[in-house]
Specification:
alpha/beta, 242 residues, 7 helices, ten-stranded mixed beta sheet
């Protein structure tokens, strides 16, 4: 049975739908919370991040409120970048979500930049010509239904291929090498996860995007079915690369 390693930088940003989709595909995963110093596979004795892929079939890096450039504050970012490069060199698939995508870009020399405002809420995005041919987006209908929540974005990552574009930044998904994918958007959130973000970070989030307070229930009612389908399909396609 395949086992996946998931790095979770923020306690209130868990794998959510993505973790559920892995289980539905018959895959097990270990979740490591480097800031909280907790790991699901060793709940009583935090083992830290591994220094290589070991027996893991793939690596997923989730989101969080810090910047990928904050290595001096969060040493796990440096360790995570080294691990991403190790999985990539071993030709095992990597998937970065939001901050995870920015960490991937940073690991390969890309630029992380601050956007003019928060991009948050459900968005409809477009596949690039390369994205339409990429195996990760097989059977994904356009426009692609995603959930956004980020102040920073990526650009100019050497060798990266842009797969999805639209919204507030031109690079919404990219590929480095053969199996290392960054998704600027989220595929894992439930309404309860977003409500946790509003509870913790609401002053910052809702100043730029008040619809998070006024329209959240309506957004999920309208888009969640398509969104959850995208998560399941992307997860299945990514696991096929492992």
């Amino acid at each position: 049975m395949k086992r996946i390693l998931i790095i979770v930088p923020e306690l209130v940003a868990p794998p959510g739908l993505l973790g559920q989709a892995l289980i539905e595909q018959g895959v097990r995963y270990d979740a490591v919370f480097p800031v909280g110093c907790f790991a699901s596979q060793s709940p009583m004795d935090y083992p830290g991040l591994p220094d290589g892929p070991g027996g893991y079939a793939g690596l997923i890096v989730m989101g969080g409120p810090m910047s990928a450039r904050d290595e001096h504050v969060y040493p796990f970012l440096t360790e995570t970048m080294a691990l991403i490069r190790a999985f990539t060199a071993a030709e095992r698939p990597v998937l970065g979500v939001c901050l995870g995508a920015q960490i991937i870009a940073h690991a390969f020399g890309g630029e992380i930049y601050r956007m003019s405002r928060l991009e948050s809420g459900f968005r409809q995005l477009d596949l690039t010509p390369e994205g339409k041919l990429d195996p990760l987006f097989k059977d994904i209908a356009e426009p692609l239904t995603t959930f956004e929540n980020h102040y920073e974005a990526t650009r100019a990552t050497p060798g990266a291929i842009t797969l999805v574009t639209g919204g507030a930044c031109p690079v919404q998904a990219f590929l480095v090498g053969a199996r290392t994918y960054g998704l600027q958007f989220h595929i894992e959130v439930t309404i309860d996860i977003v409500r946790d973000w509003i509870r913790m970070f609401g002053q910052d989030f809702c100043r730029d995007e008040p619809r998070l307070l006024t329209d959240l229930d309506q957004q999920f009612e309208t888009h969640f079915g398509d969104y959850a389908g995208v998560c399941r399909t992307l997860t299945r396609n990514w696991l096929a690369l492992a």
